Amino acid sequence: MTVHEQFGDDLALYALGALSGEEKISLEKHLQDCPSCRRELEQLRGDAALLALSTSGPRPPARAKSRFMDALAREPRTEPSRSGFNWWAIMGWATAAVMLVFVVGVARHNRRLSSTVAELSGIVERERLAGDQARRIGDVLHAADAMPYEILPVSVKTKLPAGKLIYSRERSGLVFVASNLQPVPAQKAYELWLIPNKGAPIPAGVFRPDSRGMAMVMNPALPAGVEAKAFAITIEPEQGSSAPTSEIIMKDAGS
Amino acid sequence: MSTASKQSGRDDGALIAAIRAGSQNAMAELYDRYSSIVYAVAMRVLGDTAAAEDVLQDIFMHLWRNPGTFDASRGSLPPWLAVVARNRAVDALRKRRPQSDIEDVTLSVEPDMAAEADRSRVAEKIRSALKDMPVGQRSALEMAYFEGYSHAEIAKKTGEPLGTIKTRIRAALMLLRKAVEAT
Fold first, then answer.
1. pTM (2 d.p.)
2. Pairwise CA distance, residues B39 & B42, whole Å
3. What ipTM was predicted for this assembly?
4. Which of A17, A121, A133, B175 places its Cα 20 to 30 Å from the Cα of B152?
């Protein structure tokens, strides 16, 4: 690893939160463009974490546990948290997002075509029905007893990496969810590619799987109206590439 | 697997998943497993039981309200908690608003420290390395990390040149790294 030596001392200070002033601003600017210094910073923070972990002392008093349990009891949480990476929650959000795009799309399209009260009434009714449907899907996916089941051929003994992708050319929208992905090496990430009928592959999102091998890409920035011939995944530097630099490791089954 | 994990049969990842699903029992188990780490760090920085208990409460309640805050792909839980505790405690010590979001803590720690035996072994190495370190080097490192002073403040307090403080702190961290790599 090559760390720019002129920033070596400053990186150590920055890792401890002890760098200030112009030097801090200058280093932060450099870090934006330097993966090797970012990696060294993570390592230095790790070194500092060991310093924190080396502290020893008395265990917290029993009253601290009581105080914590009282606070917990005052804040029960019956629904899965949405701040974490929850596969089914994400499926719910993804479904809701797709439905929302659909609903908004229908509404906009129809507004352009209609101006009569009768037509507007029809739009409202369709929006209501679509909204009800999205809510019902969300209710099931977010239910406290919702359990994920993966239905596979009985001959399948191991779970393979897999992804589901929904793409709308008209909306320039894309939702991708994946499971059973292998971890990627440090400073690497998966990159999704939209392969158009004509022209070079288009970057469609960089992602890293969580500890359970799950990942998601939702509505990456895509050029308008591109007809997709296929979708593929490669492993790229963590910041992503503008063109694939490695072999395709996953692609859609139709290509 | 750590001793705590063996007692419950659930590793940290399983506990976090259960916490995300709203399990108070899982949250209590995680508290039992790691509250001593958080409290020890907070006490080291603050030297005051009431203030350390506030930091302890604050961090675990934050984790309960926002279990997605901890991202296992960015490091294992014990060092992450230790760093979050240090950051919160230093903010409390300097009586300032939080300087960094809990979500921003990203570490690279080897070994991953999920096992209690690993943590004890590494902690002993670190303590030994600190003991053998030149006094000025150790003092600069501890002033920066446990007291939250900037390098300029340390230079002013010690009367040493800024460059010397910078070099000492980096060298001190490198010594800690070497000590752990030697395990």
1. 0.57
2. 5
3. 0.83
4. B175
